[in-house]
Design a protein that fits this description.
Elements lengths: L4 H13 L12 H16 L1 H9 L4 H17 L3 H13 L3 H13 L3 H13 L13
Helix pairs in contact: 2-3, 2-4, 4-5, 5-6, 6-7
């Protein structure tokens, strides 16, 4: 059983005061809120700014997951070119879901060798879900 909602908000506010960016992402609506914050910052100031301002204090794996969520938001908004760039950055940070989405995109655009490399790296990183469009693991 998790902490009550008010407790998670109090913890997040305290963490923000001591300098942990995106700490409020641990709250129930935090993941969506964090993604929206990153999306606005990305569109306003670019990926480098987002990485420096919001993700630099996170462990690489956590930063990769935040970037993966940003890439999904861009993808769902129809901005596939920017989503691809962010998927690649998230994959470089070690996010297995980003590796799979990047590989899927590369495969659909004829870059099969690089796609297979990213699928392999995702599997080595512990990714066990089905690869999109293939039914394979």
């Amino acid at each position: 059983m998790g902490a009550p909602t008010w407790a998670s908000w109090v913890i997040a506010v305290l963490a923000i005061f001591i300098g942990l960016p995106l700490a409020w992402a641990s709250t129930p609506l935090g993941t969506r809120g964090a993604t929206n914050l990153l999306l606005k910052a990305y569109r306003r100031d670019g990926l480098e700014y987002v990485e420096q301002q919001y993700l630099s204090k996170l462990a690489p794996y956590r930063a990769g997951l935040q970037l993966f969520n940003l890439a999904l938001a861009l993808d769902h908004a129809g901005d596939q070119d920017d989503a691809l760039v962010v998927y690649r950055h998230a994959a470089d940070y070690g996010s297995p879901p980003a590796m799979v989405n990047l590989a899927y995109w590369l495969s659909r655009h004829g870059e099969e060798d690089e796609a297979q490399e990213w699928y392999r790296r995702a599997a080595e990183a512990g990714y066990t879900r089905v690869v999109p469009g293939t039914g394979e693991r």
